[in-house]
Amino acid sequence: MLVDFEAELWVWEARRDDSWTFVSLPVDASDEIRDLTDGQRRGFGSVRVEARVGVTTWRTSIFPDAKSGAYVLPVKKAVRTAQSLAPGDTVRVTVEVLDLSQD
Fold first, then answer.
1. Which among 50, 100, 58, 102 has a CA at the least distance from the CA of 77?
2. What domains can be seen in the chain, in order of their start residue?
3. 3-state secondary structure 39-82
4. Which residues pair with 22 in a beta bridge?
5. Are 85 and 8 in contact, with CB atoms under 8 Å apart?
6. Cα(38)–Cα(61) distance, rounded to whole angstroms?
7. Among 2, 22, 59, 83, which residue carries the largest CB count within 10 Å?
């Protein structure tokens, strides 16, 4: 499953620096991911993905955010630096879900 979307980079509120920067996946795509990964989620409800921002691709996990109902994708500093991004910027993101249920 591929999810292609635009979202604003935001900083986890418990941090005073931008070391924990995320984008939120769309809620409808998050609902579909939840359905497709039933039983495949890892610790903290995470799901393995391959993500792309600009020309940078990396493997990581997305995590459920109970407050918004969406999954959140951490965007590491190396990606933000390579793509000249800062919190508050809107970015185009592609996420490929790697953990899918085998029905």
1. 58
2. 2-97 (2.40.30.100)
3. CCCCHHHCEEEEEEECCEEEEEEEEEECCCCEEEEECCHHHHHH
4. 10, 74
5. no
6. 15
7. 22
Encoded tokens for 11: 């900083």
Sole residue written with tokens 């809107």: 90
Per-residue tokens: 82: 């390579």
CA 71 to each of CA 52, 95, 97, 103: distance values in angstroms, whole numbers, following the listed order: 16, 11, 12, 23
Whole-model pTM?
Answer: 0.88
